Amino acid sequence: MTARIALFDLGNVVVDWRPARLYEKRFGDADAAAHFLAEIDAMNWHKNHDSGTPMDETIPALIEDFPHHADHIRAWKTEWMEMFEGYVPGVPELIGRLEAAETPLYALSNMASETAKPIFDRFRIINVFRDIVVSGDHGVIKPAREIYDITLNRMGNPEPSEVLFIDDRQENIEAAEALGFHGHVFTDAAGLERALLDHQLISP
């Protein structure tokens, strides 16, 4: 069965999110930025925000461990939007084609509740999605089964096989496919276009 619904991840599928972008500006050096992010284990730390813990709780705790990086750690919140640089090339055009084909469009993103509105306000194409499931609102992140169950419910409980889930992380796709979703591991717009054509969600 081909899918009839497109479910998008947002970060690095629709919008270009790269934390190193902010810290390369702050440090003036890519290697120093990478070292800082590795030293504080930034991506694992950030999972707390995606899981619903406010940054005002996690930032002081991390500063206790890395007081010499206090200003840079605070910037994760105060300069958050500096981590973004536009849309992922080619994806807005594909979303436009899906919208023109009247394909139901939804989004599921591991995202902190407090950062969602600034992202949605800046990247207006996100408003075409009928609903957006933000992990921080539910206290659970991909690839946990519960977030997919929540998403199906928010979409009106379609059969999972009716949904094509597009995400840039293999483990998130594997978790969705185990529940019966169709999955596409996003690498670029050209690959996504082929997947959408295969599922007849857009026309050539």
CATH superfamily of the largest domain: HAD superfamily/HAD-like
CATH architecture of the largest domain: 3-Layer(aba) Sandwich
How many helix segments? 10
First-to-last CA distance: 20 Å
**Which CATH C-level class of the largest domain is it?**
Alpha Beta
Any low-confidence stretches, pLDDT <50, length ≥5?
none
Q: What report would you give on this structure?
A:
By secondary structure, the protein is α/β, with parallel strands linked by helices. It has two domains: about 5-15 and about 85-200, HAD superfamily/HAD-like (Rossmann fold, 3-Layer(aba) Sandwich); about 20-85. The protein has ten helices and seven strands. It has helices at about 20-25, 30-40, 40-50, 55-65, 70-80, 90-100, 115-120, 145-155, 170-180, 190-200, and strands spanning about 5-10, 15, 85, 105-110, 130-135, 165, 180-185. The strands form two sheets. A five-stranded parallel beta sheet has the order 5-4-1-6-7, sandwiched between helices. Helix 4 runs antiparallel to helix 5 (about 70-80). The longest helix has 11 residues, at about 55-65. The mean pLDDT is about 95.
What attributes characterize this protein structure?
204 residues; alpha/beta; Rossmann fold; five-stranded parallel beta sheet; two-stranded antiparallel ribbon; 10 helices; 7 strands; 48% helix; globular
Secondary structure topology:
Blueprint: E1 5-8, E2 15-17, H1 19-27, H2 30-39, H3 42-50, H4 55-65, H5 70-78, E3 84-87, H6 91-100, E4 105-109, H7 113-122, E5 131-134, H8 145-154, E6 163-167, H9 170-178, E7 182-185, H10 189-198
Parallel strand pairs: 1-4, 1-6, 4-5, 6-7
Antiparallel strand pairs: 2-3
Helix pairs in contact: 1-2, 4-5
